Amino acid sequence: MRKTLSILLCVMMLLSACVFAIPANAAPEGTAINTADEFLAMVSTAADATEPTAKYYLAADITLPASYAEPFWGILDGNGKTLTVTNPVFADFSGEVKNLTIKGEIYYTDADAAGFATTSSRGYTAINCTNNANVTVMGNAKHLGGFSARIVNNDLGEAACRFVNCTNNGNIYIDSTANEKMRAGGFAGIIDKVSMINCTNNGDVYSKGNICIAAGFVARVGLNAAMNVAEAFNCVNNGDVKDEETYISKDGVAGAGTGGGDAAGIFGHIGTKNNAGWYKIWGCTNNGNIVGPYRVGGMVGYVYAANSTAYVDIQFCQQNGNLTYGRVAGGSATATNDYCGPFVAYTNSPFTTIKYCIDTGVITATENTINANDGRSFVGLSSADGTQYDITSVYVLNKEQYKWVTYSHNPDYVANCHGIEEAEGIVVTTLEEIKSGKVAYLINQASLKDEYESAAGFETFAPEDYAWAGVTAENMFSFGQKIGTDNAPTANVTAANWIVLNGDKYENGTKAVEEETTKAPETTKAPEETKAPETEAPVETEAPAATEAPAATEAPADTEPAKSGCGSFVAGGVAILAILGTALVIKKRD
Fold it and tell me: pTM of this prediction?
């Protein structure tokens, strides 16, 4: 917990790389747990209760011989202690867990696996939790993650799971013989609705099998819910992600791998046909190298949002990892297209926003891949009209590696293919400009004059809805950077790292809107009607025999901003606003 604000506030922020907004409990509440037997004997809140009454806290580090087997609904305070495990802590957990560290090795052959809870009947909130356990599955299984394997429930609220200030350091590895789709994520394999706030994944994620999805945070979001939610605010992926799909169909003939082949730094695959949803990724960074066959993105692999009640909103994000994509010719008999993009590889959404972002990564196509050049685009799509997308103030190092701003392989939608030269909102930059603070400065000044109203008329990010997690407008509508120390911007905006222009030099100073800065281009209104894209039915396939996993490969030695292990939010408060000297108005700024 941070010390009381004082005249030393600025000095503290200069020295602090991570600022945490949620205070830890001064004193834990509930029943103390000192042994494994006491842990396994905990009593859950009654299933018909409206609020969890079961409250426990760890009074010692404990080694658990087995999972808590029954569904547990309650509040568990780790109290800064550690659970050592060889199985998931809980088979089924709902409620709230906080201040907990998990370590150990979890190895399964024929079951879904996770570090904390295999599943959740009601959804849960995790605050200040760290998973250090490696999770490995070799055999017939479908889901695994650092915290949870599978959480699917139509009746849960806006966010079935909320992770706040949580970290996964465990490596997630699945080599499955299951004749079904597999999902592997640093935090979870599949969740219907999820909010990630100020979280970090440092673990590598590897998925191999019939039809795979892999991601730094959650592989699959929004499978069954009528309203899908996928939110990530100020999260950082430092882990490498690899999706190695085998594409073998049930009759032994190579197939297209439909419903899989997606890999990304944050979310692998979002949304379902005709379901509503909001998909927001703000202030996030991908530093991991991402490898996949079909749809590979720095933030998201695939967004299925084909109707007028779903949209994709990515702002203030950085993509620094190297991306490798492509199914080799002959390896997938019906495959005709592959996609790779710095932020979203492919989406059906008629409403897509990518604004105030930075892309320093290098894209490489697998040798002999299909449509290697065409697939490199900022956004792959089908029937959506890419001219309605809002791609504004996106700074890139390697614009020449993209052929398209938006690209559709379907000949019926050739009009939606727009060359990269048409992209007025994509600006070429250099590592030196990023390091100097220039890029962050230009983005901030454009952002301060933005109205923050989406083209589709959806309500945009509202910090007040997340005040409980320490989210403020101040740290979600700007980049911070300590000039001379930080090689790249971060989402941590403080009085010590706001960027100003002093003559021709970028320095840290007081926040202000500079009159000479050009306002960001106006947002174009989305069309009233959009044609639904074509859909593909999943192919049931038969998995091959398990094979030995390949050895880990080193990341390309390309020059890029240093990896940052901290994805923390800055708590907005009266003292900070006084130092900054100005309040940020979300809906409209003068």
Answer: 0.81
